[in-house]
Amino acid sequence: MEQRLSLITLGVADLQRARDFYEGVLGWKAAPSPPGVAFFDLDGLVFSLFPHQELAKDAGLAPAAFAPYRGYALAHNLASVAEVDTLFANLEKHGVTIVKVPQKVFWGGYAGYFADPDGHLWEVAHNPFWTLREDGRISMVKES
CATH 3.10.180.10 residue ranges in the chain? Predict the structure, then answer.
């Protein structure tokens, strides 16, 4: 298997509510999508929202109780501490659940966490040891 990720799908309780959050609060733009799913083109990586019940059915699993912590977090890196603070101020303005306010963290960066309407955790961080390229991609090596 090649070392790459093509698609991330989040199970959601209410597809329209989730889509409204990602479009209205985060400012993302949905790509053309068939009924019952929402796709977002992340420049080569596809992010999708799909109802919990349908995702479980598609995977051949019985739906389970969905707790807020599921053992993973999605992450969004920004170029500065100020950008992290600005994003969190916007999230607070929209009443988004802030799980952890941005702060200096043990590994030397600055990060905070918020939850989308279904409790999926998002980390928003500034990592001073990586380079955030102009196109938004990360170089795991600090470039001058």
Answer: 7-59, 74-139
Give a three-class secondary structure readout of the chain: CCCCCCEEEEEECCHHHHHHHHHHHCCCCCECCCCCCEEEECCCCEEEEEEHHHHHHHHCCCCCCCCCCCCCCEEEECCCHHHHHHHHHHHHHCCCEEEEEEEECCCCCEEEEEECCCCCEEEEEECCCCEECCCCCEECCCCC
In CATH terms, the fold of domain 74-139 is: 2,3-Dihydroxybiphenyl 1,2-Dioxygenase; domain 1 (3.10.180)
CATH tag for 7-59 (out of 3.40.30.10, 1.25.40.10, 3.10.180.10, 1.10.8.60): 3.10.180.10
State if pTM tops 0.85.
no
pLDDT tens digits, one per residue of 31-77:
998 899 999 999 878 899 988 888 777 666 666 554 455 666 788 99
